[in-house]
From TrEMBL:
GO terms for biological process: nucleotide metabolic process. The lineage of its organism: Bacteria, Pseudomonadati, Thermodesulfobacteriota, Desulfuromonadia, Desulfuromonadales. This is dTTP/UTP pyrophosphatase. The active site is at 74 (proton acceptor). It is an enzyme of class 3 (hydrolase). It comes from Trichloromonas acetexigens.
Length: 201
């Protein structure tokens, strides 16, 4: 595989790091320092795009961090048009899971690849539909007791124990975990940052 070894993942999320590691791309991790605030009048798509761009741009703007391509991403769960981010406490996690029980929701992940050399950023949003089975009070309480929901958008992890709730999924799986890998790798390839497979010579 050809690569410039110049890719930086601007994220503190172990899930994003694991996803990018899976395809064998060399990169470094530098968490960004962007507050995940919601702004009035901003659509969910605009929200994840802004945060993805800001995360990539903030790390790219640090003079002491070497690298050329900076990846930022943000994931939210959308239910009835409202944003579910990470639950603040167990009561909020329970309320989120109750509101997702027996229904379909969407998971949106924004991603941004900032090219420090050209100063340009490619950013996009990927949406995945997820349907949960109806949850009992015991399942919700038991799942929260595992501790898994607390740092996850929508209070669940499809890659973890939370998969027991997932009846159906339509669209990108990695997008739900936190990084739409197919799209991110295709973007890196298009920008010339990486080439997963060379043409045979
Ligand atoms: C829905 C869902 C979310 N999540 C996680 C992915 C993200 O880490 C988290 C959403 O929080 P984000 O704010 O997108 O990301 P983060 O704060 O963890 O990391 P950073 O901003 O530094 O990149 O929810 C799962 O791990 N599995 C799931 O099934």
């Amino acid at each position: 595989m050809k690569s410039t070894h110049d890719i930086v993942l601007a994220s503190a999320s172990p899930r994003r790091r694991e996803l990018l590691e899976r395809v064998g791309i060399p990169f470094r991790v530098v968490p960004s320092d962007i507050p995940e605030d919601e702004r009035p009048g901003e659509s969910p798509e605009e929200h994840v795009l802004r945060l993805s761009r800001d995360k990539a741009g903030e790390v790219a703007g640090r003079a002491d961090i070497p690298g050329r391509w900076f990846i930022g991403s943000d994931t939210i769960v959308l239910r009835d048009g409202g944003i579910l981010g990470k639950p603040a406490d167990e009561a909020e996690a329970a309320a989120m899971l109750r509101s997702l029980s027996g229904r379909e929701h969407r998971v949106l992940s924004g991603y941004a690849v900032h090219d420090r050399e050209t100063g340009t950023t490619h950013a996009d949003v990927v949406a995945t539909r997820v349907r949960f089975k109806p949850l009992t009070a015991a399942e919700i309480a038991g799942y929260i007791a595992t501790g898994e929901p607390m740092d996850k958008a929508g209070a669940y992890a499809i890659q973890g124990i939370g998969v027991f709730m997932v009846e159906a999924i339509e669209g990108s799986y990695t997008n739900v975990v936190g990084l739409p890998l197919c799209e991110v790798v295709a973007t890196l390839e298009r920008l010339g940052a990486v080439r997963l497979f060379e043409n045979p010579t």
